Amino acid sequence: MHVAIIGSGPTGLVLGAALARRGHHVVAVDRDAGPDPDGGWARRGVMQFHHAHGFRPQIGETLQAEVPGAYEAWLAAGAEPITFTLPDGRTTRGGMRSRRETFERALHGVVAATPGLELRRGHVDAVTVEDGRATGLVVDGIVEPADLVVDASGRSGRVTRSLRPDAELSGRTGVAYVDRQYQLRPGAEPGPMTNPLAWQAELDGYQVIVFRHERGIFSVLIVRPIADPDLAALRHERVFEAACAAIPGLDTWTDPERAEPITAVLPGGELVNHYRRQSGLRGLVHVGDAVATTTPMFGRGIATSLLQVRELLRLLDEEVPDDGIGPAFESWCDREMRPWVADHVCMDGAMLDRWRGRDTDLDPDLPSDRVMAAAAVDPVIAESIGPYLAMLAGPASLDTVRERARRVYETGWRPALAPGPTRAELSAVVEKALAAPVMADRT
Fold first, then answer.
1. Which of 150, 192, 221, 407 has its CB 3.0 to 4.6 Å from that of 5, i.e. a possible disulfide?
2. Is the pTM of this model over 0.85?
3. Can you list the residues of the chain whose pLDDT is less than 70?
4. 190 Rama class: left (phi>0) / alpha (psi -120 to 50) / beta
């Protein structure tokens, strides 16, 4: 086939390379030019490119299966494999420590050399449609015919928006975050960790997360409700530093004697979850964040995208008829992807309720994060959450212990908040930092 892909982020790159290896002619179009020879790479318009990411085992497994050499190039660029120790003493792969830039640079370098794949810089104006079937793209005013069009343009892609129904499942979280990358100084050890990938702590009215990356680099996130305008000032360097110094755990990670910032403070917009269905047009398939978007707190984004890539490749390998690819893929996404989005909608909504001072609601199904929290006092729950955490089983796998978790909460037990300033106290820290004289940026 001649395949035209909208977007050459991780989804488009992996899918494009895998299709080209199967003998198809593939053109992946993106407005981004890719890495510069001098090491720069802006990825303009892709906010999440510069923000923290978690890389689950499914990502490395997909690279090894579909893009030979990409996993090795990622390792050579500094990515660090993570190993988890199970309760019985066995070890299992736990993903990779890496910045997204490191991942994409390594992937792009390998994919760009794939015979049969053209990475083209350009603007996709439209999808051409004839008799209910996508027939190609219009790129900078020129028609690019295709037997199959793939929308891998991400959650904000606009080209196909008019061709699709509105999001079937959507949840505006009411939260946003700022983050910044640091690097440990020589000889400095990491700060507190919740697991080998990250440290996560919920305080009174907000949340903090540290994602470890390669070579001592880490990202610090402060997740806040957008309804609190005071905390929007965390985008200022001096304010962010003052907040980190005031929060136990973050003060250890960001201690100037132990770590130095290597980026500016990176603000992000409101986080969203959404699940969108296929367009119904023959010859057009939507994949990746164009289908399922989840907030970054559990680091599922790239994993869910590449799992979709693997399923779409499976359908194409089985030579499913042209008019059956979209429905078959949508059916799989309904089963496998939609539950992850629904899981996040539930968890993120409940988290915002807690930040508003509301108690855990025991009437509906408990959010998954509250089920996992109850594992601290119920060993049966603790033994049951592993497959869910590893994304080897979906959110429904927790149904067997949701009632046990409910009984834990009915006793009056609640997870303890991490020590540190309340949101009101953090707002006071922000106000004081804003009023302080402006010092020269350390970066």
1. 150
2. yes
3. 36-50, 85-89, 438-443
4. beta
